[in-house]
Design goal:
Layout (H helix, E strand, L loop, with lengths): L1 H8 L1 H33 L3 E6 L5 H21 L6 H10 L1 H14 L6 E10 L2 E3 L2 E3 L2 E10 L6 E7 L14 H10 L2 H7 L4 H15 L8
Parallel strand pairs: 1-5
Antiparallel strand pairs: 1-6, 2-5, 3-4
Helix pairs in contact: 2-8, 3-5
Length: 220
Amino acid sequence: MKKILNLLNNSKVKMVIILTFLFFIYTSICAISYANQVSNDIANSVFRLHVIANSDSNEDQNLKYIVRDKLLEYMNELCINCSTKEEAISIAQNNLNNFKELALQTIREEGFDYSVNVNIGNFEFPTKYYGDISLPAGYYDALKVEIGEAKGQNWWCVMFPPLCFTDVTSGVVPEESKEDLENTLTDEEFSIVSDNSLDIQVKFKILEILNSTGLITAKK
């Protein structure tokens, strides 16, 4: 113990400890800043869909997917010529009542009488993986659809550029959708979201933790 205390009293050792600590702080700040910038840049490039089922019963979960498919099909028709996220959001906003009516009609056709709440806003999303494409946690502009009591599991995907896959069993994102996403993001951002290595997954998890603590990725 005495040797350790003597060592700590050594000015050179103190300097090494201080420099090491400062280097750690510097690299941590740089890492957080970089993660925050990448997350924000990606969030600023996509418009997402968030559908919440009435409950976790098999019937309500199946209904969620049916409603999702109808809304995605309608959105794809509306935005067939969209080139920017802002344009897609504007079109969705102008057709918000149509989205709600389509959801209600689909629910009734399936034999249910649930209410539907549809709105566009900036919402918190966890890290999500779509086949070999992943998106970091953060706040994203999205069309949010709440079915009935909205106490069931969520469905999260990307409406613009169209990244959602309708076959939930395969989890495969079509190549055309990847190309649309690649054209929307920078080369660096696309390389990040298309890399599902353990290193990227760990970084996204750290980003999600930092986001949940409010340290980064502030809500708009």
